[in-house]
Design a protein that fits this description.
The complex is a heterodimer of chains A (266) and B (443). Chain A has one domain (5-265). Chain A contains 13 helices and no strands. Chain A has helices at residues 5-14, 16-31, 40-59, 73-99, 102-106, 117-141, 151-154, 156-175, 179-193, 205-212, 215-228, 234-258, 262-265. The two termini of chain A are 24 Å apart. The model of chain A has no long low-confidence stretch (mean pLDDT 86). Chain B folds into two domains: 5-230, P-loop containing nucleotide triphosphate hydrolases (Rossmann fold, 3-Layer(aba) Sandwich); 297-419, Distorted Sandwich (Coagulation Factor XIII, Chain A, domain 1), CATH 2.70.50.60. Chain B is built from nine helices and 19 strands. In chain B, strands 10, 12, 14, 15, 16, 18 and 19 form a seven-stranded mixed beta sheet that branches. In chain B, strands 5-6-7-3-8-9 form a six-stranded mixed beta sheet, sandwiched between helices. The longest helix of chain B is centred in the middle third of the chain and has 17 residues, at 247-263. The chains are: A mainly alpha (266), B alpha/beta (443).
Chain lengths: 266, 443
């Protein structure tokens, strides 16, 4: 079976209605029964931002090195976290994205390969609301730049990487229950090893090439540049895009290769 | 592929790899499969059959005989180890009713979601929504989360969604067993109706009566192999004979069926026991020597034997052509080969389609003949007033013991009889229980 990006996209496109329903269900289910309901989509990032503003703005009085744009640290931190959280939420839920629905695998005729996309979709919904809050905050603090519009485009490599890893982890998660333990540790590690809390320029020269191999660094740096109204390093971004696209295809190929055994194992 | 074939299964086999420990799977992957860390378990072996459009096929077999595996392979949920499955048409699979439902969501939301799973867009689903709700008979609960539903409502809703999705092939695994009888009737009626429009049905059930009622052909599986694929009653008989046979004899029986299946012979399953038919009687007006069942099935003798079952009229003649309204004695006789405790006898009358119309037991329900010694012969007269409508019926009988799981002896379709037509009947079905003349009043 040949796996081409076109064929993968066509397959996802064919199931778009079902995928949409699944994502909708996933997001709604999280808030079902809560008193504030769907309002939590707004409330939780807002609370997080308030805490950042208090801790980093008031207590630590942290400043971004070489900061000239004047955007407060906590706003830049928040913008980096939006991108990272989309990735983190997707990956953390990947191990159970298929294993959690044994009836879809075993009991009904179902395009199982779209299941790992559901956490990504849900994460994007949450990320979208966080982005709106970021937008409002930037407007309120008077730092709104037109380049902010590039944000959604800039995170595309990150989405592809998240997708590729999701397919891979979801397949492994079926055979190996340990994935549920391994992945959160991996995600936390990545959060500190990616330039979320600090700019890549703060990393010692000797390690910087290593950092640039991490597509997350490139994407987070690029989004931060867009938020601050600086120019984006497009060549680095292009490389990250290529790398992540390959990761997505390989992840899908691995998933399709091992899916024949899912029903046997679940 | 021929266009009137809905499902074609060729030499289908499925072998599961069983890993003792999850790490064994990784070890095997790391060695690129060169070292084997697993055992194999064959769930299905070399099964072939075809289902035509508009045909209903039942699958029967003991637990673990591979029925569910076969269905999952046909649905494409499992990947065959070898062989192939070809499907011609849209499948709706009810392997476990409501398995796609999410209990937190309302009935309404789940209906639309189930539609999405089956690839039916929302607009089309909206058009069917009322049909689904009325078929499922859910009422105002439709806007409640399905976790608040009773299990019956849950199943009804799931079935309604599936059956109203306009499938060309429907696969039902034991799913109807949960609904109440009224709903089961409704489902069967619906299935029959869809069948007449060309829907193919694949139906797994332990209820042989349901199978006999709905299916034109039945597939008998045992230990993953096809033992028989043929007419319902015959195949069901074979199955029943197999499951009630003593453990030692089962393998032998299975082999016999398999051999017969290969040569495509129509064998009379009952080879050793033909004594139940009466042959030494003179042909008369009330006796038709041609009325001999081909489906006679004698279970293995396990402690007692029924030697003859005969029908006698008021004059004591053996008959098999019966007059409506007259009284007859159905005489069962035989002998006991071992001591048997807690004995009771039974006799039943079945229709051509296998439905038990009536029966009697001796002694009555809850009572038993305490003890019968080996070597004793017996003869029981069961009296029947022939209120059956004209047609052909089958008689079978059995001896049971309350102490034994296997019955000492049983014969199905030991003989058949015909009820003649006296005058043009006003009743229809199987029995005439009309009381007085019907009166019409016109206003």
């Amino acid at each position: 079976m040949t796996i081409s990006p076109l064929r993968i996209s066509a397959n996802i496109w064919r199931n778009r209605y079902l995928l949409g329903q699944l994502i909708k269900r996933d997001v709604l289910l999280r808030y079902r029964g809560a008193i504030f309901g769907v309002l939590w989509i707004f409330l939780s990032p807002l609370i997080m931002l308030a805490i950042f503003a208090f801790i980093f703005g008031q207590i630590f009085q942290a400043r971004w090195p070489q900061q000239e744009s004047g955007i407060p640290f906590w706003v830049l931190l928040f913008s980096g976290l939006i991108a990272f959280n989309i990735f983190a939420e997707t990956i953390s839920r990947a191990p159970t994205s298929v294993r959690g629905y044994p009836s879809f695998v075993k009991k009904i005729i179902f395009p199982v390969d779209i299941l790992p996309i559901v956490p990504l979709g849900a994460a994007l919904v949450h990320g979208g609301f966080s982005f709106l809050i970021l937008l409002a905050t930037l407007a309120w603090t008077g730092h709104l730049h037109a380049s902010l519009l590039l944000f959604p485009l800039l995170i595309v490599p990150l989405l592809l990487l998240a997708l590729g890893l999701s397919w891979f982890i979801a397949a492994w998660g079926i055979f190996l229950r340990d994935m549920t333990q391994i992945v959160p540790v991996f995600v936390q590690m990545l959060m500190f090893l990616s330039p979320v809390f600090y700019p890549i320029s703060a990393v010692p020269e000797s390690l910087r090439t290593l950092y640039q191999l991490n597509p997350l660094s490139t994407v987070i740096e690029a989004t931060r540049a867009a938020v601050g109204g600086h120019s984006v390093d497009w060549s680095g971004w292009g490389m990250a895009f290529g790398f992540c696209l390959i990761a997505a295809i390989l992840g899908y190929a691995f998933f399709q290769h091992s899916r024949d055994e899912f029903a046997d194992v679940l | 592929m021929c266009s009137d074939i809905a499902i074609s299964v060729k030499n289908l086999s499925k072998t599961y790899r069983i890993f003792e420990h999850p790490t064994d799977r990784i070890k095997q992957m790391l060695t690129l499969g060169k070292v084997r860390f697993h055992r194999e378990f064959t769930a299905l072996q070399d099964v072939s059959f075809e289902i035509k459009k508009g045909e209903a096929v039942g699958i029967i077999g003991r637990n673990g005989s591979g029925k569910s595996t076969l269905l999952q392979l046909i649905c494409g949920i499992l990947k065959p180890t070898s062989g192939e499955v070809r499907i011609n048409g849209r499948i709706s699979a009810l392997l476990e009713l409501g398995s796609g439902f999410n209990p937190e969501f309302t009935g309404r939301e789940n209906i639309y979601f189930q539609g999405a799973v089956m690839g039916i867009p929302r607009e089309e689903m909206e058009g069917r929504f009322d049909d689904v709700v009325s078929f499922a008979d859910i009422g105002e609960f439709i806007d409640q989360p399905v976790r608040t539903y009773s299990s019956g409502m849950y199943v009804r809703l799931a079935f309604a969604v599936n059956i109203l999705s306009d499938p060309e092939i429907i696969i039902v695994d034991e799913a109807l067993a949960v609904g109440d009888e009224k709903f089961q009737r409704k489902c069967f009626a619906r299935l029959e109706q869809l069948k007449s429009r060309g829907l193919s049905i694949l139906f797994v059930s332990h209820s042989t009566e349901h199978i006999a009622e709905l299916c034109e052909k039945v597939l008998l599986l045992d230990h993953g192999e096809r033992l028989k694929y043929g007419a319902p009653l015959e195949t069901i008989r074979a199955y029943q004979k197999l499951i009630y046979a003593p453990f030692e004899k089962q393998d032998h029986l299975a082999q016999e069926f398999r051999a017969a299946d290969r040569t495509d012979d129509i064998i009379n399953i009952d080879i050793e026991n033909e004594s139940a038919n009466v042959s030494n009687e003179r042909p008369s007006l009330n006796f038709d020597p041609g009325l001999v069942p081909e489906t006679t099935t004698a279970y293995p003798v396990q402690g007692a034997e029924i030697e003859t079952i005969r029908i006698l009229n008021a004059q004591g003649d053996v008959v098999n052509v019966l007059q409506p309204g007259c009284n007859y004695q159905f005489v069962v006789s035989g002998r006991f080969l071992t001591n048997v405790e807690g004995v009771y006898f039974g006799i039943h009358i079945r229709s051509i389609s296998g439905v038990v119309i009536t029966g009697q037991r001796y002694p009555e329900e809850g009572k038993y003949v305490e003890h019968i010694e080996a070597g004793k012969a017996f003869k029981i007269n069961f009296g029947f007033r022939m209120d059956l409508l004209p047609g052909v019926y089958f008689v079978g009988g059995g001896i049971w013991s309350s102490h034994e799981p296997n019955c000492p002896h049983r014969i199905l379709d030991a003989l058949m009889f015909r009820v003649t037509q006296e005058k043009s009947p006003k009743s229809f079905g199987y029995v005439d229980i009309s009381a007085n003349e019907s009166i019409i009043e016109l206003f």
